[in-house]
Amino acid sequence: MNIQRKYSLPNCTLLLEGLSDAARAAQFQELRPALSILVNAECYLSGYTQPLSGGREFFESLVRAVSAYAQEFLSNVYHPQAHNFESELVQIQKIDNNRHRLIVHSEVPGGQIVQVNSYGNAKQSLQIDLNTVQLFDLVEAVDQFFADSQTLPELSLELQPVPRRYGNTGQALVKQALPASVGITSLAAAAIAFAVIPPPEVRPPEPTTQNRSGSTISGVNNSSTPATTSSPTANEQVAATPTFTPTPIATTTANPTPTTSPAIKDLEALLNTVPEITDASQLRALNRQVYNQINPAWSNRLGLNQDLVFRVGVAADGAIVGYKAVNSESNQAVDQTPLPNLLYNPANRAPVSNEPVAQFRVVFTKVGVLQVSPWRGYTKAPDVVGSKITDPNQVTQLNQKLYDTIRQNWRSTPSFQRDLKYRVAVNKDGIIADYEPLNQMAFDYFRETPLPQMFQSVYGSNIAAPNNQEPLAHFQVIFQPNGKLEVMPWQGYQ
Predict the structure, then answer these.
(1) For the CA atoms of 338, 344, 347, 349, what is the dihedral angle to 10 degrees?
(2) Are 218 and 346 in contact (CB under 8 A)?
(3) Which of 60, 89, 201, 424 gives the lowest tally of CB atoms within 10 Å of its CB?
(4) pLDDT band at residue 234, thresholds of 50, 70 and 90?
(5) What are the beta bridge partners of residue 16?
(6) Cβ-contact 145, 14 below 8 angstroms
(7) Nearest to 319 by CA among 424, 143, 464, 422
(8) Confidence bin at 459 (pLDDT 50/70/90)
């Protein structure tokens, strides 16, 4: 099966195409198969219509050249790998502080390197001038590749000390305004370059995540964390140089260190090690959170030839921690869904360890309607989570107040043909605190009701309810096609 990996930045995109190892694929049924055999690599740079492309040797040379040059540029310390012009297919030369020349050669049989143009003819080398922002986007794209444990896992990034003769502690530090897009490699290099200022303070780089296609669990590649082979002195600067070490086929996860997140796991394997959320009331609340995350993010709803069905894992706080396509068609079309972009970011949230996980069935229908339901259904009728207002007199007063508010704001002429049913919650002052569609028509025509505007006017958004712990009164609200409105105390989910 052909596998694609894309690492995108505003000014640079790396696109890798290849195959998975047949022996590994037969032994391990992975949610997101590893791209272990690189067939083609393409590097798209802003301002240039034609990408830089080549095979594995081209890509390995590219990441070596980018890593070495970024180290030298940031630290202003000579890096010998950055000047290896005789054997490298890719070279980067500094023109000035804001211009950098990327040179790509082509290798022919016999080991002789010849120069080629953009059409592959043996005439001249391909040269592209980058500004500093483009350079650092290229660095960040390489960092995202190293953070992906399922792409060329045997290619790892290690930090090695530059020979002492290249160090010069007396030279002035580089004074540059670094763009915000500097990635792991450049952050590590900057921290090391400034370590000569006492007291030294080197912070471990934060892991970088990327958008993923296919079925996956959000995680971080342990091999992407730089490791030094020795403790450099003040006269030794540390440079990033990618090395290639065989990865045992039987090894699918690594032991995480205190500074790394767990390695990628299969969804079934994750569920075998953590409790599963089965409480009907909690599943109902999480069902809404999943819908509210996916539905507004699903922007392109055209072009589906069939329904795409996924099994989605969700943590107790509503974070999407993994997904798996139910069939091959769904797996191939995963990029037409927002799921790859909705996986939680391990840098912004604690990693999934032993916290419970709920499973949902998410269907992207070919008619453009999103469906979300518990994977195993509800074991019993769910209830509303949270404290409730139960005093009969107070409930009656709030019932009338809610009716008057909705009636006053409902001015549109109904175009729907069947009742729209909602659960609406208000606080002790009669202010709307939550609302939830109860049937498909209510999902489809919610904009014809005043509920979104009422909610948005209070909270600034109508996507998800706020985290409010105060007791609420719940009501069932029915908008009828003839313009009639019904509001009654909540009797529970039907």
Answers:
(1) 150
(2) yes
(3) 201
(4) very low
(5) 5, 41
(6) yes
(7) 464
(8) confident
